[in-house]
Write a sequence for this structure.
């Protein structure tokens, strides 16, 4: 922070821009935005952990809520600072809002209003402690506005025509944006979250008497795998359309999501989390080797299928190594990665139906 | 500047209540108290703690005693919530004796007076926006009021660790308190950021103070100190915050119009 002198001047958006172009946030601005968003998100992760693991959560005024809301306050103050800095440069009205920051400026008061609503909800209706957390209307508005704020650096990168093949350092704010957004979506899909399963639960879920036609656990894990697969692979497929993703993007995504997942599971799912991170490294190798993009349609689709397959193949391998045995029903643990791969392929086809001409 | 003003106004008008009294204790007009143990048990004490919501029994006698199906060992204390203690006149068996208590009710003050005081403080805070140094001084005063309120609320809670409670009670104070240092440094260096930080910190304190409106209308406040002192601290936080937000913004507007 420069306290108002020696200001970091945001770059004009585009060389052929009109006389008073919208500014574009610099790398440092975006990095601070995403780091404050990280504080914000970690507060939510802590709160999620508390809701899942602390009995008799009676008060709205918990340390976890304090971290969460203070993270929001810090992020809000920072975004206002960015606007004010541009105002000092002579920019007025919407011209003072950097490219990509507009949705965040709207989301800040929306988040604040939802926070007020959440307080009233907790006070008059009660504090949620189960699946109802994920369906509370105030929570859904909170999470949606959070995602709008957190994806700000991604929008900055997306709108920068010069950013096509960024290094990991250049892409870091956008990559963290993607990771935290995926983590928030995973958090609010807790009823179908395969990352929270422990290795023992994975083995037990896919071990059942074939004559009984399956079990509730088997159905839960199977549907969770398919749901979680979409959440994990879609951000990469989306970003790969626009950028030549640097090595480390998929690993970073996995690490951020596992940061949340392990907290919510009270660190009982560590082998599963390690599996996801290992799969992230392999997917990064796939990104480098295949270089998927809209122009390389075949590689793009292979990547969609392969990234999904790798994620779940490693998932079962990690569980098997940790437990010393694979699940009893071979069709389940060999077929689930194939099913996920088909879903990944389908998503790749839906996102880019035809090659760009 | 209009975008900035809109964002500030919306932040204030839709403020998130992230801070109030620690431990989930709330202001009220009634308070449950222990009047005595009959017959007395030498070495055993009983009192209502946590703003009259929980009964705490300390066993300093030579033998274990039983209350609410729980055995309290020698030298131990037991803290629990018992619905019986909410009756106007109540009794809870304690070993061979009984704890007696009653719920007293005291009417709250007229909140209009405190709202007027808050409005006066807000007006004063706004006029601090005429000078950078005054803005910084105002930020320090309002922050001190907020810190005092948070600490006093935390000290009113029994049976929970201090630091997590204080963090919970501080809410946006986790950001606003350090920013106070930034405001002072900026003022000393005569930087224009002083007004910006004052406005933002002021807006945060309005957010922090809104849930404390109840302190103006109830007689019994969960605060380690006189109730009127807590009300004054809340008025300083709310009114001072509002004044700083408006005064800081006005300073920025005036400074901006010359650029």
């Amino acid at each position: 922070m420069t306290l108002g002198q020696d200001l970091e001047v945001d770059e004009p958006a585009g060389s052929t821009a009109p006389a008073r172009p919208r500014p574009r946030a610099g790398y440092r601005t975006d990095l601070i935005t995403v780091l404050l968003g990280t504080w914000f998100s970690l507060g939510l992760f802590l709160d999620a952990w508390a809701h899942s693991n602390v009995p008799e959560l009676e008060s709205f005024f918990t340390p976890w809520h304090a971290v969460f809301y203070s993270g929001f306050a810090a992020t809000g103050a920072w975004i206002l600072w960015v606007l004010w800095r541009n105002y000092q440069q002579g920019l007025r009205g919407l011209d003072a809002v950097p490219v990509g920051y507009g949705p965040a400026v709207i989301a800040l008061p929306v988040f604040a209003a939802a926070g007020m609503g959440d307080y009233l909800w907790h006070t008059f209706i009660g504090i949620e402690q189960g699946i109802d957390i994920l369906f509370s209307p105030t929570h859904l508005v909170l999470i949606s506005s959070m995602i709008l704020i957190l994806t700000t650096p991604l929008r900055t990168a997306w709108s920068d025509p010069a950013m096509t093949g960024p290094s990991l350092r250049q892409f870091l704010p956008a990559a963290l944006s993607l990771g935290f957004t995926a983590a928030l979506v995973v958090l609010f899909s807790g009823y179908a979250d395969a990352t929270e399963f422990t290795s023992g639960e994975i083995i037990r879920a896919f071990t059942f008497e074939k004559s009984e036609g399956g079990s509730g656990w088997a159905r839960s894990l199977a549907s969770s795998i398919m749901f979680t697969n979409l959440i994990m692979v879609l951000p990469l497929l989306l970003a790969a359309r626009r950028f030549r993703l640097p090595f480390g993007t998929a690993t970073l995504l996995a690490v951020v999501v596992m940061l949340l997942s392990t907290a919510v599971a009270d660190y009982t799912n560590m082998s599963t989390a390690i599996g996801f991170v290992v799969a992230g490294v392999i997917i990064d190798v796939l990104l480098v080797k295949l270089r998927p993009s809209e122009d390389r349609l075949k590689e793009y689709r292979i990547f969609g299928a392969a990234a999904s397959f790798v994620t779940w193949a490693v998932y079962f391998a990690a569980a098997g190594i940790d437990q010393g045995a694979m699940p009893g029903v071979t069709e389940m643990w060999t077929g689930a990665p194939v099913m996920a791969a088909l879903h990944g392929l389908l998503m790749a086809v839906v996102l880019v139906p035809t090659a760009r001409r | 500047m209009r975008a900035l003003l809109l964002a500030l106004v919306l932040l204030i008008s839709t403020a998130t209540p992230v801070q109030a009294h620690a431990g989930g204790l709330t202001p009220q007009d009634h308070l449950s108290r222990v009047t005595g143990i009959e017959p007395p048990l030498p070495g055993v004490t009983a009192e209502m703690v946590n703003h009259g919501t929980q009964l705490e029994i300390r066993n300093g006698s030579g033998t274990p005693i039983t209350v609410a199906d729980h055995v309290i060992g020698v030298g131990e204390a037991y803290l629990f919530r018992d619905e019986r203690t909410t009756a106007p006149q109540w009794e809870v068996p304690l070993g061979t004796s009984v704890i007696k208590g009653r719920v007293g009710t005291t009417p709250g003050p007229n909140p209009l007076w405190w709202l007027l005081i808050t409005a006066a403080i807000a007006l004063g805070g706004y006029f601090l926006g005429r000078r950078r140094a005054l803005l910084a001084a105002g930020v320090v005063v309002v922050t001190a009021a907020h810190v005092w309120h948070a600490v006093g609320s935390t000290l009113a809670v029994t049976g929970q660790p201090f630091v997590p409670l204080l963090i919970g009670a501080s809410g946006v104070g986790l950001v606003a308190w350090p920013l106070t240092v930034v405001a002072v440094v900026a003022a000393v260096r005569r930087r224009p950021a002083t007004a910006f930080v004052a406005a933002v910190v002021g807006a945060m304190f309005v957010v922090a103070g809104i849930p404390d409106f109840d302190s103006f209308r109830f007689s019994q406040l969960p605060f380690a100190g006189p109730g009127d002192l807590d009300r004054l601290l809340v008025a300083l936080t709310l009114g001072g915050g509002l004044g700083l937000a408006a005064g800081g913004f006005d300073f920025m507007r005036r400074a901006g119009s010359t650029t």
